[in-house]
Design brief:
Blueprint lengths: L11 E7 L3 E7 L5 E7 L2 H12 L5 E6 L3 H11 L4 E6 L1 H11 L5 H14 L10 H31 L6 H30 L2 H10 L7 H11 L8 H8 L3 E6 L3 E7 L5 H17 L1 H12 L4 H22 L5 H4 L6 H6 L1
Parallel strand pairs: 1-4, 4-5
Antiparallel strand pairs: 1-2, 2-3, 6-7
Helix pairs in contact: 1-2, 3-4, 5-6, 5-8, 7-8, 8-10, 9-12, 10-11, 10-12, 11-12
Length: 345
């Protein structure tokens, strides 16, 4: 949809604090006057909010935090309005901004902070995701929740079978529940693969992902479903930050010198999938294994080295998506000497 272009001085700045049941809205008019309203966080509330915003004879620049399912439908509704310019922000980014402008923590105060963010900070338009991409992520995340249940059931069954005091009826019921979840997971993975096969871009990226060491068909689905919704213009550094794999250093003079760690301020599902892939790749791929050993030789802890491998793999994924070519460890690590190359030399 083509958005109308308005004069910057006429813009109304809006902040929306999103919760499960309600939307706290704050507006800063071009003349500096303030307005506040509250709407329900459902379809009728979104429609009422849109009507209220359209009563302004100016474009409305809206900022709201990314809060998963609570904000997605609202973002889709607002993005469909020609008068709205929408930003969906990382909550960590908003929290840092809030620390500079407001100490209070209420829904109304949060909405006002977001309105001020709209007014003061550079505009970065939210990219509306394709319906197929949203569907793939939804199915993938649901599979992930079932896998967690599956693991819990396996542990309960193992505990139940380790003692003769567990009644047979309990063991049978646990086995039936486990088998039912396994069937559901298998069926949903088939549906996810159908979504991948239905679109050229998804199919090509899925095939590229499976060329990366440590990323099998199952993990490729998870990683693809989380990456596909990232804005096309994002850099690889922004990819790393969005995954929470960016390193955080804590050093100051001689009094503070703590080990580096990852920020964790990002997509935990993507981070977990990359970590599991890094575990495998650091053992079985010669280039990534050599990179892991080089980090350990520099006195990095095992976890620090694994997170670095995961981060390097994300760089590789970014590269193969951009180039459309399969993974090549030699290009990723031109200066890393593997054990095979060392013995040959």
């Amino acid at each position: 949809m083509n958005k109308q272009v308005f004069a910057p001085q006429a813009t109304v700045f809006c902040g929306i604090d999103v919760s499960a049941a309600s939307l706290a809205v704050a507006l800063i008019a071009p003349d500096g006057s303030l307005a506040r309203r509250e709407f329900s966080n459902n379809a009728s509330g979104h429609e009422a909010l849109s009507v209220w915003l359209k009563k302004r004879d100016s474009p409305v620049r809206v900022s709201l935090e990314a809060t998963g399912i609570y904000s997605l439908d609202l973002a889709l509704a607002l993005d469909a309005e020609a008068c709205v310019e929408l930003m969906v922000l990382n909550p960590k980014l908003v929290n840092r901004f809030q620390q500079t402008v407001c100490r209070s923590k209420t829904d109304a105060a949060d909405a006002m902070v977001l309105a001020e963010y709209s007014q003061r900070m550079p505009f970065c338009r939210w990219q509306r995701p394709a319906a197929s991409h949203l569907a793939l992520r939804t199915v993938s995340r649901y599979i992930g929740s079932l896998v967690v249940e599956q693991a819990a059931l396996k542990n309960r069954l193992c505990s139940a079978e380790s003692t003769a005091t567990t009644p047979r009826a309990v063991r049978v019921d646990l086995k039936r529940s486990l088998a039912a979840i396994e069937r559901r997971v298998k069926r949903l993975r088939v549906e996810a693969l159908k979504l991948v096969e239905s679109e050229v871009e998804l199919r090509e990226r899925y095939q590229l992902l499976t060329t990366v060491p440590g990323i099998g068909p199952v993990n490729a689905l998870t990683i693809l479903s989380e990456l596909i919704l990232l804005a096309p213009a994002m850099t690889v550094r922004q990819w790393v930050a969005s995954s929470g794999l960016d390193p955080v250093h804590r050093q100051s003079g001689t009094s503070l010198n703590k080990p580096s760690r990852i920020s964790r301020a990002g997509n935990r599902r993507l981070r977990a999938a990359l970590y599991m892939s890094a575990l495998s790749a650091s053992r079985y791929d010669r280039h990534l294994a050599a990179f892991y050993r080089a980090l350990r030789a520099r006195h990095k802890t095992g976890m620090q080295a694994l997170m670095a491998v995961a981060r390097k793999m994300l760089h590789a994924i970014y590269g193969i998506f951009k180039s459309g070519t399969p993974f090549d460890g030699q290009r990723l690590f031109p200066n890393i000497q593997t054990e095979v190359e060392s013995s040959a030399g």
